[in-house]
Design a protein that fits this description.
It contains twelve helices and 13 strands. The protein is α/β, with parallel strands linked by helices. It has a single domain, classed as Aldolase class I (TIM Barrel, Alpha-Beta Barrel). Strand 9, helix 8 and strand 10 form a beta-alpha-beta unit. Helix 9 packs parallel to helix 10. The longest helix is centred in the N-terminal third of the chain and has 19 residues. The termini are far apart.
């Protein structure tokens, strides 16, 4: 990290309530200058969501796993349990069938993901032709969670016409080894960002706040790494302890720490759409986090709390809802769909 940014991050980490309010205001003004005073709310299909003026659709944008419930890593925060919330699509033929069913039910697209192999990659190679068929024949929006990836697969996915590549970026070698239990390094994530950028696929990296037992460790380094590769959007998520995993009793990151990462992301990437993503603690923690996110001027929030919606409206911010994946915020900007609820 450059000395200039190191100094800014240190100041941000040490900010008291009054100083943090100034940071939030600065981030908000930067956002409004770049994108206007507007915010998009997303509610994709993998979780039921209802707000005063929007209800999620069960079929609009589901998540698929090409490995079913299998993951070689069994990392401490997840242990493969998140895969159980996805529709299994274990063969290319089955992937096409599931996508045809999504289309028949009026769905708009899907997220294709899966468990990781020991090298941190998602085994997507045999599914690329099926993905290309889904894009060509069905016209669905398809976003793919790649994991660690090489240039060959990135090029093939680009050729298949996927709409975005999602990848979690970890900025600490210690966290990669201890929490993900993965024998790769920060350099492997940097290389994955580079090959995805070079492939021309819209790149939407995720930064997971508090992955190291709820503490900040490597998040700002991850943002600086991401900033080198012109991402289409950046999504900030947060550790959400899951029952039955090795980290079920871990304390999640404090809402204020999530806000610090959001502020840093906005200031490091002033012209990149910024999203508070779906994975974050629920209840009171979520309400507090979401309010801070609105005050930081994020461009989108997934499954927003009513408190965040009301705050945005009270700030005379233009709001709208979508059933798509929040990674599509960059495309929504491109086509100016803010007043259209999908």
């Amino acid at each position: 990290m450059s000395q200039s940014w190191r100094n800014k991050v240190q100041s941000l980490l040490q900010a008291d309530d009054k100083a943090l309010e100034q940071w939030l205001a600065e981030a908000r003004e930067v956002s409004w200058k770049s994108f206007g005073r507007r915010i998009r709310f997303y509610a994709p299909s993998f979780m039921y969501y209802r707000a005063e003026r929007f209800c999620s659709s069960p079929s609009a944008f589901p998540s698929l796993s090409v490995t079913g419930s299998f993951c070689a890593l069994k990392c401490k925060p997840c242990g493969g349990k998140v895969l159980n919330t996805m529709l299994p699509a274990l063969s290319p033929q089955r992937l096409v069938e599931v996508c045809k069913d999504i289309k028949a039910k009026g769905g708009l697209g899907c997220l294709i993901s899966g468990g990781c192999l020991p090298d941190g990659s998602v085994p997507l190679e045999k599914f690329v032709d099926a993905i290309a068929e889904v894009k060509k024949i069905l016209g669905l929006t398809v976003v793919v969670h790649t994991g660690v990836i090489d240039s060959k697969l990135a090029g093939r996915l680009a050729g298949a016409g996927i709409d975005a590549a999602l990848i979690d970026i970890i900025g600490s070698d210690e966290t990669i080894r201890e929490i993900y239990q993965l024998n790769v390094s920060v350099a492997d994530y940097d290389r994955s960002l580079r090959v995805l950028h070079e492939s021309g696929i819209p790149l939407v990296p995720h930064v997971l706040v508090g992955l190291h037992y709820g503490k900040l460790k490597g998040e700002f380094e991850a943002l600086e790494m991401i900033a080198k590769y012109s991402p289409s959007a950046v999504i900030v998520i947060a550790l959400m302890p899951i029952h039955g995993t090795m980290m079920e009793t871990a304390a999640p990151p404090k809402p204020i720490d999530i806000a610090r990462v959001l502020v840093a992301a906005r200031l490091m990437l002033p012209e990149t759409p910024l999203v508070l993503g779906c994975m974050r603690p629920k209840g009171k923690h979520k309400a507090e986090t979401d309010v801070l996110a609105v005050r930081a001027g994020v461009n989108a929030i997934t499954f927003p709390s009513e408190q965040a919606i009301k705050l945005a409206e009270s700030m005379h911010t233009e709001t709208s809802f979508s059933s798509l994946c929040c990674s599509q915020i960059f495309d929504d900007f491109k086509h100016n769909v803010w007043k259209r609820e999908v």
